[in-house]
Structure to design on (405 residues):
């Protein structure tokens, strides 16, 4: 037997404290924590689209501009994100190259693809298994979201460590700014999406 | 005032269930979408308070003690969490310095101090002054706490530099590792359960 939907029971979930609120008693705000109640997150689809497209646009300069500038007595270089992965790979640290590749390229690209998939398919009627898989994808997005900040932290830490001195200088460059903004925008996009929309067209379907 | 808290709702698909009786280490998942809808409490209030105080001490260590240091030809240079933010403040990317400081210092400091406050009162079976807004703030801050990512970043930095100079992990790095685990465990799991206890 399938469980009932909260909306059919005249109940609404408070997103802040997870209380099941009765719509008869308090239709607008949660009686326990005071947060505003919504049937679904407001304007979820247009907000998610907008934030994701903004992130996608800024992802171009994030990849084209150098993220760090390294100078020492022997050589100078200012690699882009992909360039720094290639440098590490050639230098023999394939493991670190893989970690940075996953965090800086794998995760953001996955987020763009999955968010697009969710947004495009959300209003179509699909079977139960498809709804379940897409909800699972959304939970994966929530989980991986902030790991892309890795490169920003590495840039900050390396620049803080390697200043002046005989061993050279490492400075952050503009690419890291765009990249950080991309990560924040994709996190906001994920937060503004409402996975319950996936199920809304399937109430009578089971 | 009583709430219909014998019913729980899945936040991913809006399915409603009667609150299940859970034993230790059990969790309940949604039949429809597979999301976790309820967990058994992992720690007693005493344990949670003890770990929040531990986290507060670790936070103090992380604020002032370097996470990494390097040594080249007798010269030693070290960096704390704050140094990493400040290093990004040079030049045109100051916004990232603020973001990094927010995600690795401001948010964790707020989380740790509010959790200690809330658990301390919960131990006396009371609701702390400011209970409601602090619980809401903690829920809103949770996605923006990024210490564990910084931890991985520090390990990556060690390997990146190790070919060229001597890099050593410092005490701060171990404190950072402990702190990030404590915050994940406390803020994500046991803290929301305070809503159900304290009246």
């Amino acid at each position: 037997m399938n469980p009932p939907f909260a909306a059919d029971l005249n109940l609404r979930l408070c997103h802040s404290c997870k209380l099941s609120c009765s719509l008869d008693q308090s239709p607008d705000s949660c009686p326990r924590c005071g947060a505003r109640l919504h049937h679904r997150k407001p304007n979820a689809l247009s907000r998610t689209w907008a934030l994701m497209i903004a992130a996608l646009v800024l992802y171009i300069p994030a990849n084209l501009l150098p993220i760090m500038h390294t100078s020492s007595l022997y050589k100078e270089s200012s690699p882009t994100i992909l360039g720094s992965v290639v440098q590490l790979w050639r230098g023999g640290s394939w493991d670190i190259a893989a970690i940075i590749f996953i965090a800086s390229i794998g995760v953001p690209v996955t987020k763009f693809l999955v968010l697009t998939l969710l947004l495009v398919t959300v209003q179509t009627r699909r079977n139960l298994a498809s709804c379940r898989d897409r909800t699972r994808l959304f939970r994966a997005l929530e989980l991986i979201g902030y790991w892309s900040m890795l490169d920003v932290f590495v840039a900050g830490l390396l620049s803080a460590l390697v200043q002046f001195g005989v061993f050279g200088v490492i400075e952050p460059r503009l690419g890291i700014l765009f990249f950080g903004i991309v990560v924040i925008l994709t996190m906001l996009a994920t937060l503004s999406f409402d996975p319950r929309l996936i199920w809304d067209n399937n109430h009578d379907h089971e | 005032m009583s709430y219909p808290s014998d019913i729980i709702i899945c936040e991913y698909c809006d399915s409603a269930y009667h609150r299940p009786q859970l034993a230790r280490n059990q969790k309940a998942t949604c039949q429809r979408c597979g999301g976790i809808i309820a967990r058994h409490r992992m720690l007693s209030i005493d344990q949670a308070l003890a770990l929040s105080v531990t986290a507060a001490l670790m936070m103090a260590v992380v604020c002032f003690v370097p996470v990494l240091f390097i040594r080249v030809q007798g010269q030693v240079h070290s960096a704390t969490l704050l140094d990493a933010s400040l290093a990004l403040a040079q030049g045109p990317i100051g916004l990232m310095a603020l973001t990094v400081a927010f995600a690795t210092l401001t948010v964790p400091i707020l989380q740790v101090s509010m959790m200690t406050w809330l658990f301390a009162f919960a131990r006396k079976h009371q609701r702390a002054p400011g209970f409601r807004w602090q619980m809401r703030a903690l829920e809103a801050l949770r996605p923006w706490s990024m210490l564990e990512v910084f931890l991985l970043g520090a390990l990556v930095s060690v390997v990146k530099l190790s070919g060229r100079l001597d890099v050593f992990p410092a005490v701060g790095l171990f404190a950072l590792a402990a702190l990030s685990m404590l915050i994940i465990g406390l803020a994500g799991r046991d803290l929301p359960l305070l809503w159900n206890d304290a009246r």
In short: The beta strands of chain A are 11-13, 20-22, 68-71, 76-77, 169-172. Chain A has two domains: 1-39, 43-205.
